[in-house]
Structures are given as C-alpha cells and as structure tokens.
Amino acid sequence: MIAVHGISKRFGDFQALNDVSLEIPEGSLTALLGPSGSGKSTLLRIIAGLETPDSGRVVIAGEDTTAISPQERNIGFVFQHYAAFKHMTVRDNVAFGMAIRKRPKAEITSRVDELLGIVGLSGYQDRYPAQLSGGQRQRMALARALAVEPRVLLLDEPFGALDANVRAELRAWLRRLHDEVHVTTLLVTHDQEEAMEITDRIAVMNAGQIEQNGPPRELYDKPANRFVMSFLGPVATLGGVMVRPHDLRISSDPSDGAFEAQITRVVHLGFEVRVEAELAGGESVWVQVTRADAEMLEAEPGDIVWVSTHVDAGMMLDAGAEGDAPVA
Amino acid sequence: MMTTRRSTKYGLRFIALAYLAILLFVPVGLILYRTLEPGLNHVWQEITTPAAVHAFWLTIEVTLIAVPLNTVLGILAALVLTRSNFRGKALMDTVIDLPFAISPIVVGLSLIFVYGQTGWFGSDLADAGIQVIFSVPGIVLATIFVTLPFVVREVVPVLIEVGDEQEQAAATLGASRWQTFRRITLPSIRWGVAYGVVLSTARAIGEFGAVSVVSGKISGQTETMTLLVEKRYGNFNVSGAYAASALLAVIALITLLGMTVLNPRKDPS
Description:
The complex is a heterodimer.
Chain A: E1 2-11, E2 14-24, E3 29-33, H1 40-48, E4 55-60, E5 63-64, E6 75-78, H2 90-100, H3 105-118, H4 134-146, E7 152-156, H5 164-181, E8 184-189, H6 192-198, E9 201-206, E10 209-214, H7 216-221, H8 226-232, E11 236-238, E12 241-243, E13 248-251, E14 259-269, E15 272-279, E16 284-290, H9 291-297, E17 304-309, E18 316-318
Chain B: H1 6-36, H2 40-47, H3 50-83, H4 89-96, H5 98-101, H6 104-115, H7 122-127, H8 136-162, H9 165-172, H10 177-206, H11 209-215, H12 225-234, H13 238-262
Helix pairs in contact in B: 1-13, 2-13, 3-8, 3-10, 6-8, 6-11, 8-10, 8-11, 9-10, 10-13, 12-13
C-alpha cells in the first residue's frame, strides 16, 4: 500500500500540491487523473523520492519513506519519454537494477529473459534502444522497472509519447500485465478514457488537490462536483443543471419539464448521433442519441423539438457555484 | 541546394579549398619542406640536442599534468552548471570563458603579480622553498589556466542534450550517485569529453604567450618546445627552429588523428 499524508509542495510562487492525502490499496491499479499543472506528476515524483515535499509524509508498505532517498525506496518508475539507457543493450538496460544489487550473473540472465518474455521482447536482448519503436522502448522500460521486484510501480504518463493505436494496445496490455504481476501500481494520466478503461480506482486531481477518489464507475455516476463531472465525460447544460448528453431525451412532442429547442446540426458518428440544438433563450445544448432513435425522430436541422432530462437514469449537478452537492 | 548549378557548386568548393590552402596547407607544408631540406640526419641532430630533448619532455610533462586535471575539474564544473541551480551560476558560466577572452600575455603577467617574488604570496612561497615563477610550477599553472574552458565547453551542451531522466531512472533502480555517474552519465558524455581532451592537449602543447612570460626561458630547465622554437629562430638557427616546429606539428597531427580514429566509433544510435 502507498499512503501520503498532508503533502504540500511549492515551486516558487506556484503551489503544486496543497495538503494532499491519499491511500492506494495494496495490489490495485490506481490512476492519478487531472489536467496538466494539477500536481499529479509532482505527487508521483514525491512518492518516488525524485522530489522532496515541503511538508507531509509518504508511507510505502507501512514504512515511512519521506526522508529516504529514491535509491532505497525499492520502487519501479517509468518515465513518459522512456529514459532508456541509450548506450546499453536491451539486456543491460533490464539487468541494470540487478547488476547494481550485485546479483549472480546466472540469476540476472534468466530473470532478464523471463521479463523480456513477459513484455513481449524475447529475441531483442542484443538490440540498442535506438533500434526499438516507442512502444517497444516503453515495454523495455517496464521490464527494467519490474526487474528489481519493486514494492510499488509508478508510471508517469507512460503512453503519452506514443501514437493513438499503439497507446490503446499498450494500455490493454498493461492491464493484463497487472493482473499477472499484481504489484501496487500508480499511473499518472490526463486521459480520462485511459483511466476509466484500465484502472481499479481513480483519484481526480485539480489545482494541487484531490477532488475525488474512488472506482471509475462511482466517479462517473456520482461525481462530487462540477470539475469531476466535466473531466470524466461529456457534459451538457439544460435548465441550469449539468447532465450527461446521453441522459437527455429528445422528442418531437412537448411534455412536462421539457425545453423547446431548434435543431442546428445533426452529426452521425456511426452508432452514436449527436444532435445539437438551440434553446429558446439562445443557449445551446447537445444530445447524444442512438442511431435508431435518431432515425425514429427523423431529426433535421431547423426542426423544433423538446429536450428533457431522463432523471432516474442519470446524474445531475447544479451548474452554479463550484463544489456544490449533487441534486439527484 | 538541389537546384544549385554545377559551376556554383565547384566554385564554392574551390574557394573553400583555396582558403584552406593559402592559410594552412602551404605554411605547414613549407615548414615540413624546409625542415627536410638539409636532410633527415640534420633534423635528427637538431631535435636530439640536450636542450631539445629536455624541452620535449617538459612539454609532455606539463601537458600530462594540466590536461587530466582540467578534464576532471571540467567534467565537475559542467555537471554543476547543468545539474544544479545556485546563485552566481551565470557568473560562473562567464568566468569559465575568461581564459578564451583574456590574452595569454595578460594571464602570464597576472600569475607573476600573484606568485612572483614581489607578488601576493610570492615571498611566503619563497620562504617555504617553493618557486613558482621562472620555474616548472608556473608553466603548469599558466597551461592549466589557458586550457581550462575546453572540456567544460564541450561537455555542457552534451549534458543538456542528454537530459537528466536517465540519471533519475538509474537512481530509482538503486544506483548511487557515483554508480550513476560511472555507468550512465560518463558513457553518454564520452565523446564530448574526448573532444575536449584533444583540444586541451593541442592547446597545452602549443601554448606560447602565457608560458613565455612565466617560464624565464632557462634552457634545459624551463624551456618548452614552443619557447625553444622561438629562441632558435631568434638566434638565426633557422633549420633548428624548423626541425623543432616540425616536431610540434607532428605531435599536433597525432593528437588530431587520435581524435579522428576515436570519433567514428559512435553509438549505434
């Protein structure tokens, strides 16, 4: 388990972290999710010992590591830009931590081969990092971090420098790897889809603080505030409340609590159809409907429709002041 | 430059080569020609006189002290300049370039002001039995001073380009600072260091101005190769001056060759 208590950190005038406390359960895969500048990478680097907090404590597996150097924390750290040792072969990269710990040669060789098998780089032992693709380099970096049998694995935007298709492939692969290896893993990302897809828990960060911490479903369905709601998925505003566009209903007949609107645009995105409309007051709203519903409605730009919230199914927040409570 | 006409291309090449020829190949070639004109036997005699042999070994000795010292301190200074932040860093960055900016003669004179008989600690050093000026320590000091910036200036850009992520990764994998330096940092800057060493060596062997002021030019004691060349030339021993110059040129060529042999063996990256 990783726990941080009351961590604060300033860089000059910038308050990167403000009294942050968080517990990451043993064996879980947890995401620190937030926009850039929210403090998520700083928190990860403080847990690794690469930054020193101004105040607060870091506890890894029950041991207070706040004053311990990164060398002695026994963590695995994976960087966004791989940090591959360019002058070493793949074998020497992965073996580095074990060589430092002066393990026997035979043990190192068999462990390196085993790890390269796990990350799908068997046969690449004698290559140099420059001869690998970005995805392969990052998998090598993961094998290197896992080689020292770390107590926790810390990943700083590990897929951020990769192409979209490689990224999707690697994150599915990381989830499977975690199910095999079970090491407590903390992943920093600004990609909510990535966090939703592969993690057990998400801690949403904003402006140096944790806004909410819980399983992905819980955060999506019961966001603590407007920030979490809008960061975790698409949001539309109707009649002063925030609502998910797929929780809005659109009809050609008026009904109680429905708002009259004129369709301005219909976008077909395969299965999903986005209907954009303008309310009587000039406010615009968009509704996400299925292709079948859109065809039943025969929605065309210029049509007058009635938009309502599908209250029992969804989540709504007052679109008013910051930090307010759910209304539904 | 796909559309450059042939005549323009060859014209540019001709100008570049002609420039090199007039300024470099002709004078150096002429020295070698004039040196060999009286015959190899004569050359051998000129460079094996006791004074010449002593000058040769003194030059090597001074180089072997100054270059390793400036290599170690240069790498340290480059690390401090790139991997830490402190007040006065910009000042330090500028001060390191001073030996490039200051005339070597001024360097020599300032050493006399500090270490000379009437200098700041000249008399204290003399009481302790140490003579710096008009002695080998002065020559070493002057050479260290003029070759100080080379390694720093070659290594700093490499350190900046490499970045510190690999070093951080090594730290998280359990490597101590020294292990990280030896296994990660040093291998990634080795070409910068090698180039800095070659430049420092060439300058240390060829330094004249600062050494000339502090050495006292005592034949067989404080006379380096460059000083020997000057003395012989001044004494109308032209063939002797040419022979010593040729030897200097050959040492410089060997240094540069060493560099060229080292350089193509780059990383597979």
